[in-house]
Prior knowledge:
Shape: globular
CATH topology of one domain: Alpha-Beta Plaits
Strand content: 15-25%
Distance between the termini: 19 Å
Strand order of the largest sheet: 2-3-1-5-4
Number of helices: 4
CATH architecture of one domain: 2-Layer Sandwich
Mean pLDDT: 76
Low-confidence stretches: 119-124, 164-174
Helix content: 25-40%
CATH class of one domain: Alpha Beta
Structural class: alpha+beta
Amino acid sequence: MDIFVRALPEQCTDRELTEFFRGYLKTLVNPVFQVRKLKNKSCAILTIANHYAAKQFLEVHGSNQDSKALPAKPLSFQSKPIYCSAAKNPPDPFVLQGLQQQQQERRGGGRKADDSKQNAKHSVKNGPRTHTFGIESVACGQWEYEKDRLAFLRPIPIFDMDLSCWEARVSSSF
């Protein structure tokens, strides 16, 4: 379930908001969640995988956008009051699916027997899975949203470069 959070400082980050909400959400069966601060805006989207936990959070800390009623326990971030309400739009199905998968893995029920055999090929004893990918080209730029689509902008191509001499260790989480 998505929760719309408004009246945030524009300069706050996803990481700060994640740490802030983690403390409040631990009291609610410790659900898996994600916070996405909207760029250059004073609002964010809090996605909680467990619908029941999201409803509980809204009962305690939520306010209705149309009414002037204050929540039972108002939230304050960086000494300023913030307001949470149910989002008007449904959650992104891919984000929600990823969070639900994390929740299943946290409970220990996310693996199948075939998956564990496959993962054994790519993991160090009880360590992270590793994968090796070949590089065919390199481009420098940044990812941004154009309208509602994610796009790679301002690329700077690098030509005639022998990439075989590069050894890079990159980790990414999805």
